[in-house]
Amino acid sequence: MVLVESSPPLARDYIKILQQCPKKTTYESTRVCETFDALPLIDLRGLTGDDEGERAKCASEIVRASSEWGFFQVVNHGVSPRLLSQMRREQIELFNAPFSRKSTCGLLNNSYRWGSPTAASPDNFSWSEAFHVPLTKVSDPACYGEFSSLREVLVEYAGAMQKVARMVAGVLTTNLGQSIQEFEEMIGCDESTCYLRLNRYPACPLMSGAEIVHGLVPHTDSDFLTILHQDQVGGLQLMKDNKWIAVNPNKHALIVNIGDLFQAWSNDVYKSVEHGVMANAKTERFSVAYFLCPSHDSLIGSCKQPSLYTDFTFAEYRNRVKHDSKLLGRKVGLSRFRR
Length: 339
Ligand SMILES: O=C(O)CCC(=O)C(=O)O
Ligand SMILES: [Fe+2]
Prior knowledge:
- The protein is of the alpha+beta class.
- The chain is about 30% helix and about 20% strand.
- It has one domain: Jelly Rolls (Sandwich), CATH 2.60.120.330.
- An eight-stranded mixed beta sheet has the order 2-3-11-8-13-6-5-4. Strands 1-10-9-12-7 form a five-stranded mixed beta sheet, with no helix packed on it.
- Helix 3 crosses helix 6 and helix 4 packs across helix 6.
- Fe (ii) ion binds next to loops.
- It holds the Pfam family 2OG-FeII_Oxy.
């Protein structure tokens, strides 16, 4: 039997960067992390029911979690467990395809990526592979090749995530005095601006107790809002009060996190916090992220004065992030636009 390799050559690239790294001590070799169960868990049923008091209570929990944590979990989110497990099955099948198939054959709008092409040190290397698909391409049959059953699932999944994102964004904008309709009009947000990212974190044999490898390097998201579904393996961590905190998997929950643009628009009321994924020595991990983004030319000003940030378009923001990543090997982010 001929074994066809499905994983990208991560070890080859990682070792190359490790050898080029001038001093081994320049990269972070250990990371203290606390497991913390108090990451807010919010029951979204309160938002959809008739009880006014319940709705207000749920909304205030969302606002509070977005301000204090920038990260929270939601249950009773309306996405069926059937759809979530179908998505996971399709995702596993897709990533099981040979590496050459994933990387060269136009799958999902040619959106396959892996490792970190711009990494200059092991600190900036991500031990993962992903498809990053614009929602407009999700229904295009030309994106799927032999993975035809993935199309139907991805279309349904995108619709379901869009609903959750809209519900949460609606609470956050209303709290700052703007309806979700006004907000969406202002940021030109529609199908053509949002993305789904299918992530796979292969098991990492280079990971030992003393040395860590990132599945995804610490970062903030360059969007308004992200809705994440992770499997039961664990590895996601977020920064809270200068400490790394592990997000324990909860199979009923979706994870919501605030992105840079909501932080800017809210004038720092909502927080876009650093998060990342630790690689796992033995077990592969899967997740899917939905990114709520504005149109490229939409102006991200603050909804409050005096504004802490200069006005910038989403295109300017993305270009800046791209430029910094190329030049410095990492994203600088919102501080580039602080007054
Ligand atoms: O896989 C995860 O848990 C996190 C993914 C993530 O942060 C991202 O895709 O931006
Ligand atoms: Fe992220």
